[in-house]
Amino acid sequence: MTDSDLADVWRREAPHVLAALLRKYGDLGDCEEALQDAAEAATTQWPHNGLPDNPRAWLITVAARRLIDQARSETSRVRRERLDAARNPQVFDGPLAYDRDDTLRLFFLCCHPALTRPSQVALSLRSVGGLSVEQISAAYLVPARTMTQRLTRARTVLRQAGARFDMPSDNDLPDRVSAVLDVCHLIFTEGYARTSGEQLQDIQLTTEAIRLVRQLHDALPEHAEVSGALALMLLTQARSAARTNAAGDLIPLADQDRTRWRHDRITEGVALLEKTLPRGHVGRFQLQAAIAAVHAESVTYEETDWLQISLLYDMLTRVAPSPAVTLNHAVAVAMAHSPEAALAMLKPLSDDPAMSRHHRLYAVRAHLLDLNGDHEAAQEQYRLAARLTSSGPEQRYLNSKLSS
Amino acid sequence: MKYVILIHSNPQPWGHPTSDYLDAHKALPADVRARLQGEFNQVMTELSANGELLGGEALGDPTAARLYRWRDGDPLVSDGPYSESKEHLAGFFLIDVDSQARAEQVAARFSGPDETVELRLLMWPGGDDQ
């Protein structure tokens, strides 16, 4: 068996093994450590002895033994108590089956409210996604040491918060699901906003985020916002190949070669939306997906149904208002109605201290002034936007708008 | 969001931590120095424990630097310091934090008398196509 076979089995089984251990022993830090030991044992033994008949049971047994050994050798009383379940010197006797609720429990544990967003992201990729620390740190362009610290800290916080591997109450459930969706969306945007697109080093975060939301969708097939988030990601990722040129620079939506969009993704995203939208409550992910679908189904930029997009942004403003939504709404209003109306929408944003240092406010205003024929005023706004952005490709794009 | 925190200073003699070689810092009452040191240690521990610290280095004496300027199609080498100004780049820290507010909070803790702390955003290779 090759290294990549081993990696495939590992990624498929790791979350299941972790869930089985957590169900019995509870503490994420201890269970992850035991899982790591089991992985090392598999790496040395499987290539020699061949793949076990039931790799999952094999991994669980080895990991559970490590937990038992650890509990026996521990002298700290607190730790011994924590590992109380493991003191029982029997081989793992918990259920091997993995049900959809295990996926949810694992997600909820990794996205526990006591954790910061970056910790939730790191933990979800590690524990639900089964990625290695090296893969996660490479994807986020941070040293492996930093990522290890993030994960260690996150597990300590979970321990201190008394977080358990169980389902939240019905009361808490909506907030907990929406935290998981936010985390998946954050992973997606981190990957999508990278111009290196398909060649993102080692793993592709957009694919990873879609994989995670698919798991969530399998566990909660009737959840409209989960379907909406999956549709949004599929419809957005469909544009990937068309959004950068050979030099790796950004191609704005207006100039993309739409024949290069992934139409299988678009079909899947639209189908998901059509099944979801008529069901009642419409959340922000469904609305954003609906907007992405209008773009996706428009054969050319000129044919874009801006009136519909503008109406969808109206609804989005009511459901989930934010400066970013206002900026996108303004662009749609400029196309559907007039640039003057759109410029007026930006006025309140200038008074927001957080937005006054944000490059997109100036980039959008510049675009609207250009549309309105006021090229001189647009130049000043492009200059401000270029100065404020931290994105290299965006800075090159904005600089290209400046007539020297 | 990634930032670099640049420490501009002029310790005499050049040395690290810079505060040990700055008159203005040494003139502070002992309890104030202890408090500043404690706060600095605390923020470093915090950055490290949170997984916010990407790295950092202390730089050598700027007068020992070598400078390469372009002259008649060739590099012309001379000795440092590069800058005519009172302070020189003495060291840097790379951080990865959640927000500009957190970056500012951290940078403020690196500040001390007779030094300038500069917080700069790192450019990243991505962007939005909207």
Automatic annotation (TrEMBL), chain A:
InterPro entries: DUF6596, RNA_pol_sigma70_r2, RNA_pol_sigma_r2, RNA_pol_sigma_r3/r4-like, WH-like_DNA-bd_sf
GO biological process: DNA-templated transcription initiation
One Gene Ontology MF term: DNA-binding transcription factor activity
SUPFAM superfamilies given in the database record: Sigma2 domain of RNA polymerase sigma factors, Sigma3 and sigma4 domains of RNA polymerase sigma factors
Annotated ranges, domain DUF6596: 176-276
Boundaries of every RNA polymerase sigma-70 region domain copy: 11-75
A Pfam family it matches: DUF6596
Listed name of the protein: RNA polymerase ECF family sigma subunit
Record lineage: Bacteria, Bacillati, Actinomycetota, Actinomycetes, Micromonosporales
TrEMBL record, chain B:
SUPFAM superfamilies per record: Dimeric alpha+beta barrel
Pfam families found in the cross-reference section: YCII (PF03795)
Coiled-coil stretches noted in the UniProt entry, renumbered to this chain: none
Domain of life (superkingdom): Bacteria
Stored InterPro entries: Dimeric_a/b-barrel, YCII
Domain YCII-related: 1-109
Family from the record: Belongs to the YciI family.
Protein name per the record: YCII-related domain-containing protein
